[in-house]
């Protein structure tokens, strides 16, 4: 098994495991995790459809092209991560700032997509730039707030920050990999997946802390 195959298998395993754990946490009352869970589920579906396209089981307008899958994942990440970062804000002023920021960048993203001649078959680096840059800024704001607060979700926001930056760079350079040797492309994909693996590990740590805190609270109630 090559290094890239190992990274890919570990990535898929953690994606599925994280999706299951977060889904269970929703059942146990972790409502704040709902947008993250939706993003993970859509991520699983995107990987499934990418597999179908790669193996020639599914063609988009007669071509082996997963650009539309990338569009779906970018918008899903933007909406779910954005809503999560908005929902954890306690200041009305910051929430208002986030609404303005997300709205402006969403309009830029829609405008950039409207310029594509073949929407289903073209990757758009400007879409990633407008959407992921917003998530990077919002996660950075929330991370700074966590430095002053005792409660929050530091592992989730750190994972979001890392993946948003990685995804932004990956989308920006996609066009430069046309005609590049497959080994180089697989190496780049492995690097991207390493960052995603780090995010899933951080998500799992956050869910572990949630369940641990829930158990402590239940024990305190029993003692009372």
Percent strand equals under 5%
Determine the N-to-C terminus distance. 55 Å
Q: What can be said about the biggest beta sheet?
A: none
Computed over alpha carbons, the radius of gyration is 19 Å
Low-confidence stretches: none
Mean pLDDT: 84
The helix/strand series, from N terminus to C terminus, equals HHHHHHH
Q: What is the helical fraction, as a range of percent?
A: over 70%
Q: How many helices does DSSP assign?
A: 7
DSSP, total strands: 0
Gross geometry: globular
Q: Output the structural class.
A: mainly alpha
Structure description:
The chain has helices spanning 3-27, 34-54, 67-87, 92-114, 125-148, 154-172, 182-223. With 224 residues, the chain is mostly helical. Helix 1 runs parallel beside helix 7 (182-223) and helix 5 (125-148) packs antiparallel against helix 6 (154-172). It is globular, with a radius of gyration of 19 Å. The protein starts with a helix and ends with a helix. The model has no long low-confidence stretch (mean pLDDT 84).
Topology of this structure?
Blueprint: H1 3-27, H2 34-54, H3 67-87, H4 92-114, H5 125-148, H6 154-172, H7 182-223
Helix pairs in contact: 1-2, 1-7, 2-3, 3-5, 4-5, 5-6, 6-7
């Amino acid at each position: 098994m090559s290094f890239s195959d190992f990274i890919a298998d570990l990535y898929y395993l953690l994606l599925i495991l994280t999706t299951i754990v977060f889904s269970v946490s929703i059942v146990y009352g972790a409502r704040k995790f709902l947008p993250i869970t939706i993003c993970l589920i859509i991520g699983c579906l995107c990987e499934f459809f990418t597999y179908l396209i790669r193996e020639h089981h599914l063609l988009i307008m007669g071509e082996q092209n997963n650009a539309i899958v990338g569009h779906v994942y970018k918008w899903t990440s933007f909406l779910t991560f954005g809503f999560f970062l908005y929902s954890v804000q306690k200041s009305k002023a910051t929430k208002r700032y986030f609404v303005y920021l997300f709205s402006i960048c969403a309009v830029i993203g829609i405008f950039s997509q409207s310029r594509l001649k073949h929407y289903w078959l073209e990757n758009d680096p400007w879409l990633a730039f407008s959407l992921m840059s917003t998530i990077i800024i919002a996660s950075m704001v929330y991370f700074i707030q966590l430095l002053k607060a005792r409660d929050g979700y530091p592992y989730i926001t750190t994972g979001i920050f890392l993946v948003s930056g990685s995804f932004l760079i990956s989308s920006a350079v996609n066009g430069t990999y046309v005609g590049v040797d497959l080994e180089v492309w697989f190496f780049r994909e492995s690097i991207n997946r390493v960052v995603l693996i780090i995010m899933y590990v951080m998500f799992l740590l956050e869910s572990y802390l949630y369940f641990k805190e829930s158990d402590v609270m239940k024990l305190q109630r029993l003692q009372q």
